[in-house]
Amino acid sequence: MLRLLAPFFRPAPVLDDDSRRWIQAVFAWASRQEVLRPRIAGAGLVLPTPAHFPGQASSRHGMAELVFGNVCRHAGLEGAPFRLANPDDLLDSPVPYAGAGVPPESVPIPYDPRLVTESEALIAHFARELALRVGATAAEAAPAHEGNIAHVAELIAVMLGFGVMLANTAFHVRVNQCGACRGPAAERDAALSRDDLVYALALFCRLKGIPPADARRHLQSPLRPVFRRALRELDHAPDDWAHIRPQSTGATA
User: 75 lies in a domain?
Assistant: First the structure.
């Protein structure tokens, strides 16, 4: 009797079939794009630690510059013509970065200085903004690209190593001006759900040969069981993602 009832007590899949297949398709697409392939091949797991984000600054903008520089370095974009936009200009239209042959003007990256106190959200924001601009120059359109450019950018950012921070902040991060009042709030608006990003992080770890514990210890507690389930699901169906083969680093960034 217990054997007959066992299927009814199995946990639901982390994602539905369509979402899982789409994430795998975006991973396969990104791994084929010339502008992304070398950066994805060289990516390791980036963690929200002083080792990966060293340095301190005496101002919010100075701290944002430090974090931004480290995000560019981990993404393989150190020396690219990106700059932080005027912090008051948050309506910036994405300007694609084309690598070699890019016009001489710099490519602005907007940010809200109130996110500086939320370091993981700031890292995730910068990673997605960079991915948005680099991904826009891919020769081939992403799967189901129409209307989901931010979703694709977040998956590219996971493939560049920033999945832990993206998953941990996959909700509206509100930062009020003070603890007692409700002033204007800064937000990192995530396009993908936490489960989407945790599954993508698990897929990144498996493709790269990264020990899952390296990522799991830095995930927020509610995400850890989801991460374990995603790893099990990937291991039970390796043929589903065997065609996605970015070069393995086997180490953190």
Answer: yes
Residue 79 three-state SS: coil
Of 90-104, 196-210, 218-232, which gets the smallest average pLDDT? 90-104
Please check whether residue 21 lies inside any domain of the structure: yes
CB 102 within 8 A of CB 81: yes
Question: Is 204 a domain residue?
Answer: yes
Could you give the number of structural domains in the chain? Answer: 1
Q: Are strands 82-84 and 107-109 parallel, antiparallel or unpaired?
A: parallel
Determine the Cα angle at 213 with ends 194 and 66, to 5°: 70
Q: What is the pLDDT of residues 4-45, one digit of tens each?
A: 544 555 678 999 999 999 999 999 999 999 999 999 999 999
pTM: 0.86
Domain, as residue range, for 171: 14-240
